Task: structure prediction
Amino acid sequence: MRPHIALVSEMTDTDEALWLQVLGDALRQEPVVSFRRLTAESYADIDIAIVAGPNPDNLAKLPNLKWVHSLWAGVERLVAEYGNAGIPIVRLVDPRMSKTMAESALAWTYYLFRQMPTYATFQRERRWEQLPYRPAEDVTVGVLGLGELGLTAAKLLRSAGFDVLGWSRSPKTAHDIETHHGMDGLETVLTRSEILVCLLPLTPETRGLLNAERLALLPRDAGIINFARGPLIVADDLLKALDAGNLYHAVLDVFDVEPLPRDSRFWSHPRVSVLPHISAPTPRESAAETVARNIRQYRRKHTLPVTVDVARGY
Result:
């Protein structure tokens, strides 16, 4: 009998049922069962787990597990809690999600570029005033992270006319985009970025990357967009830079604790736009097709998709 596939998640029953349906439609001939419906006797039948924020104790109950496929692009929690198990981890790489993230990066870059936070203040003050306009080609946008998400966003921003700089830990090249790498390259990108878009994975090396010292490298009145993970930016250091007026505005979609606690200063700060982690929601149908395609390839050729480098964290 062919081994089974389990969906191991911390979703609500309703959300998990929706995912089970789209995954079942995508895989068709290979049913996906919820871990919650498994009996202890059937744990040994599972060789692939599709996971979404799983409890690592549940994964540890599957003795014949060969690999796990995340439904999310971010896998830092999975790596931290399960990475030492020696089981390969595959993260979701979905072109539609990359497109959605790029759209969000462009939309909120326009929001800062066209000074919408200032006009919102003018409206509250019933103040009729027009600000000077600068063309997009005169505005430098830095993109931190040149993986699938970051590179797609950088290309869309460049096509909109912005002067785009890209940064990654290791050397990467991209047509029509000036790229930098390493700590020296990071300093170069920060000192020139009037709008900074953060799309880096969260790893031990990137946690707290944007601290007081590095935030101070940004030009005065620079804007920040963080669509990656909250801990990439030291929250207190960001608040101090905003309080001092050194930074124009921060668009934050991710936070150290989510949902964002009601007593967080970010909610009421006049230089902050709070978003509820909506910059690139996982599209169920295309994500399910991506997962199904990877599983079918494994069944046919016994080869895994690209797996997470646990040491690097992505």
